[in-house]
Amino acid sequence: MVQYVLKRLVSLCLSLVAASVLIFLTLEVVPGDPAAYMLGINAQEDTLNALREQLGLNGTILERYLSWAGGLLVGDFGTSYTYRTPVAELIGERLWVSLPLALYALILSTLIAFPAGIWAASKRGSLVDTGVMGVTQLGVAIPNFWFAMLMVLVFAINLRWFSAGGFPGWEVGLLPGMKALTLPAIALALPQASILTRVMRSSLLDTLGEDYIRSARAKGLTRGQAMWRHALRNALIPVLTIMGLQFSFLLAGAIIIENVFYLPGLGRLVFQAISSRDLIVVESVVMLLVFAVIVVNFAVDLAYAWVDPRLRRRR
Amino acid sequence: MKSLLHNRSTLPGAVLTLVFTGAALISLFWVPYDTTVLNIADRMKLPSLVHPFGTDQFGRDILSMLMVGARTSIAVALVAVGIGMLAGVPLGLAAAARKGSLPDEIIMRTNDLVFAFPSLLIAVMITAVFGASALNAIIAIGIFNIPVFARLTRGAALTLWSREYVMAARVAGKGAARISLEHILPNVTNLLIVQGTIQFSLGILAEAGLSYVGLGAQPPTASWGRMLADSQTMISLAPHLAIFPGMAILLTVLGLNLLGDGLRDLLDPKLRRART
Fold first, then answer.
1. Residue B1 pLDDT > 60
2. Of B112, B124, B249, the CB nearest to A146
3. In chain B, which residues have their Cβ closer than 8 Å to the Cβ of A251?
4. What pTM, to 2 d.p., does this model score?
5. Scanning every residue of chain B, which has its alpha carbon at the shortest distance from the alpha carbon of A207?
6. Which of A220-224, B36-40, B188-192 has the highest mean pLDDT?
7. Measured between alpha carbons, how far is B14 from A315 in angstroms, rounded to an integer?
8. Average pLDDT over residues A43-66
9. How many CA atoms, within 13 angstroms, populate the side-chain half-sphere of residue A73?
10. With contact defined as beta carbons under 8 Å apart, do B96 and B184 qualify?
């Protein structure tokens, strides 16, 4: 197990380095001088030079990459060209909206998908099964930002149960904050819950067909007992993998959903940064999200190997 | 063909897909009203005989906008699937032909890396650099499709390489490239068609999302996502502005998914047993 972890750890680090190089080079292509942008058209050459020096824009590509990547390691993301504040600070504030939103959605999607998937699998071929599968078919096809707009129309504008957007901040209290994130989290969770329900159902059906379930039934367990004691635990492995993968979709999907609800999260930060050509902010947010995806997938791989020893030997 | 129509998901899927591709094709030659002409006198009209789906805040006919939007969505998603297949399939075939070699390792690790970038993030980066346009949306979705097809092709090709007929071809002196083209590729086509349908529907959703946040097709080109973004502030006054484009996206994606499911059942009987 230790050897497996070390091996995966090396590949994790390589992935992170490769991702950072890719992101850095992509944004390096952009024409234009951030220093000139910040100081305006009337800036003097020596002021420009001084600012370039300060922003670390004067070195070779390699020097600039190393100083950027080195900064990332110690949590220094550089200074935003438009806000004139450290990018780490900007991201830190927004993370308090985006991260709870993604987690909220993940929890909702699990709470919906597990019972629905188990229910459909245990009543395979029945009206319930057909109904659940039909609803998930719709859930996968619906654009979540459109579903979000419809929810705003019904629950915010017509029924007035929720506000149509905005975020009061956590300092007002946990409940108002959660309330403001509820509609966005539902919109974000719906497609993921549909996918997860389908995976849960088919994985459970697969394990229910295994020989050891037949043995369990033969020794006298009822269908329900065999399912809860033996099938469910084994069926969870593919479900967990999909949940890990979904985390990246939730983070990326949050970028769009935050725009529907005017939530001050990472997504809105990115779009404001794009429109004001504040590339260092774009660079850092993208890197942070990719970092999160790579690390979560790494954690899922480890959990997987821990649950199923056969996987450790495969590579 | 008969069993294709007997499957309960294929027929509705095929009909929906035909309706929307048909609308997109017709829009190339004819639309009920010109979508670039504003007509303020007729703004925000409810559905009627003259305008079956009503008009938007600039008096443009929503049916015509939806038809042009179908063209945008389908073109973007289709080209993106094309990019994914044209780059991904050869990479997958090459990786499988030299399994475990350095090229295989490089191809697969690069794939893993691209996989860590959700398509939306790729789009964000590309638009940050080159600006927002339909072309950049295509590139972003297309790049995301490459590892999908590369992995699928490699996985399927690996099992084929151990078959007797491939062995026979090797004994007969055929090279790896020729075997890949003549024996492996024809046998993975079914899988590619099914995956292509799925990626096509994902591409439509992605295009809608990108143009909704302003990273896709730019005005005056009509696109479904853009129509939804424009309708957002008016949703309480004129809900039909938001309902029709959303339904168009939902039904197109639903149609493609149903079609993909049906095709998979038909082309891969093993999966049918596991799923139903």
1. no
2. B249
3. 118
4. 0.86
5. B274
6. B188-192
7. 42
8. 77
9. 9
10. yes
